[in-house]
Specification:
Elements (H helix, E strand, L loop, with lengths): L1 E5 L3 E10 L3 E10 L5 E11 L5 E12 L4 E3 L8 H5 L2 E11 L3 E8 L8 H4 L8 E2 L2 E2 L5 H18 L9 H50 L1
Antiparallel strand pairs: 1-2, 2-3, 3-6, 4-5, 4-7, 7-8, 9-10
């Protein structure tokens, strides 16, 4: 969900997004759309129901919002029911002062929205193009899910297990042997995979060289 309002001087944007691993997030930003600096803004962000009842308000006071700069509103409760169920919002600006002019009583009203709650019911993520903070061209959801599964499997496979028998020294020795065996099996598996990849790369390089020689000979 991405809802924005604004005029030629100032704007406000509410963005709600989901990730499978960290859940729901909100980002409320006031934007400077003016060609110069905004000295101060004093106003209120009001949330309304479909019946036009105000259910939540967030005071906003900003000093020195420079050109093309954004201000992130952090003094709101992301767990408040209004954030999840509001029909529209109003950015009421009581006073706004730029470097050359002053304005009062500005009302910016967003469009009405319909909440589907799709992601609350289905938290499966279908698109992820980020490695950390860097965006890539490819969708990495499948790769990240397999990585998490492999990491969980490796942790379980190599984790310490408890075996109960009568003699404690036997338990410790048996436990040690099991863990060493699992680690050796994991190392052998990784070596086999690495050797397989090296063989594939070697075979592909031979094929590429053969094709190049054939093209040169022609």
């Amino acid at each position: 969900m991405d809802i924005a309002v604004g005029n030629d001087i100032v704007g406000l944007e509410i963005k709600k997004y989901y990730t499978r691993y960290t859940g729901k997030h909100f980002n409320i930003r006031v934007k400077n759309l003016y060609h110069g600096s905004i000295v101060s803004i004093k106003g209120t962000l009001n949330f309304y129901t479909y019946e036009n009842d105000r259910i939540y308000s967030v005071p906003i006071e900003i000093d020195h919002l420079f050109i093309k700069q954004n201000y992130t509103v952090s003094n709101f409760d992301p767990k408040h029911r209004a954030i999840n169920s509001f029909a529209y919002y109003e950015f009421y600006i009581e006073k706004l002062k730029t470097d050359v002019s002053s304005f009062e009583d500005i009302r910016l009203i967003s469009r009405r929205i319909v909440h589907t709650f799709f992601y609350e019911l289905n938290m499966k993520q279908f698109s992820d193009h980020f490695i950390g903070k860097f965006r890539v061209r490819y969708n990495l959801v499948w790769l990240k899910e397999r990585g998490i599964r492999i990491r969980s499997w490796v942790r379980f496979f190599c984790s310490k297990k408890i075996y109960r028998v009568e003699h404690k020294p036997v338990v410790e020795f048996f436990e040690l042997m099991v863990r060493v065996t699992k680690i050796l099996m994991l190392i052998v598996f990784l070596v086999i995979v690495l050797l397989g990849l090296m063989y594939v790369i070697y075979d592909l390089s031979k094929m590429i060289i053969a094709i190049a020689k054939l093209l040169i000979s022609k």
